[in-house]
Amino acid sequence: MNNKSPKHTKVLILGSGPAGYTAAIYAARAMLKPILVYGSQPGGQLTTTTDVENYPGYSKVIQGPWLMDEMKGQAEAVGTEMIQDHISKVDLSKKPFEATGDSGQIYTADSFIISTGAQARWLNLKSEQEFRGFGVSACATCDGFFFKEQVVAVVGGGNAAVEEAIFLTKFASKVKLIHRRNELRAEKLLQEKLKANKKIEIIWDSAVEEVLGTSEPKGVNAIKIKNLKTNDVTELKVDGLFIAIGHDPATALFKDQLNMDKEGYLITKPDSTETNIPGVFAAGDVKDKIFRQAVTAAGMGCMSALEAEKHLSQ
């Protein structure tokens, strides 16, 4: 039997990362004594990125994990209680809201901020994970800048892949779009824009088999691709590989309780982080599939805390 008494808080924040930590900083400064529960990857996606050059306030390159440690420290310093636990169940049908952790701890809350984020889908190749952050990326807007005048490949066939390929032509000398089928899923208008771009070459009916590179200095110099119709494997010289096959928001926990779109992203009211349940807010990549930046996630974290404070004072 669970003999732990429930832990109650005015604001329960689920998930760390820029959205969760910023929500915690604002909620704590509003004297709401928030509890932030984080899982096995504290700091979220930013802990898997190395150089961060686009977060405002730092003229020199900073490291993603360092930035997350700083945000975490700031949230604790102003009065956030941090608990590592994996939330396995939530009940948003009654007030106070309730969350149950794998530890057996029950958390009750007057308001709830969801910042559980999203995860890029990967090809799940051993070599891909090996070079992640060293030439293999899932974010062109984050890392495109590092590939000036170089040759890069993008994997995917949807809007995200096409947009990333077009974006990368600002920096790269050549962009090779690799797609497993012989037609793209992206919107027609985007496809026309892509095909009109002289820097982009599309490689149809193909899949990446292996990422090749050097260990000193660590970096990518080629990929092996297999033609799915002929089974021929060829080596392609590239300096970087961008995986753009989609993201999975961490929202399984809220299925049938909160409104989400067909891809599982939480839906919030216009110009707000409030979900369809008053007092439940969503911030960061768990609801944002357009921008996916640390600074936009942090901005939404701030909004969610201010909205939670307003909700609690009504």
Q: What is the H/E order?
A: EHEEEHEEEEEHEHEHEHEEEEEEEH
Net shape? elongated
Contiguous low-pLDDT stretches (5 residues minimum) are none
Mean pLDDT rating? 95
Percent helix range: 10-25%
Question: Could you describe the 3D structure shown?
Answer:
The protein is of the alpha/beta class. It contains 7 helices and 19 strands. Strands 1, 2, 5, 6, 7, 8 and 19 form a 7-stranded mixed beta sheet that branches. It has a 5-stranded parallel beta sheet with strand order 10-17-11-12-13. Helix 1 runs parallel beside helix 2 (64-77), helix 1 packs parallel to helix 7 and helix 5 runs parallel beside helix 6 (188-196). The longest helix has 19 residues, at 294-312. It is elongated.
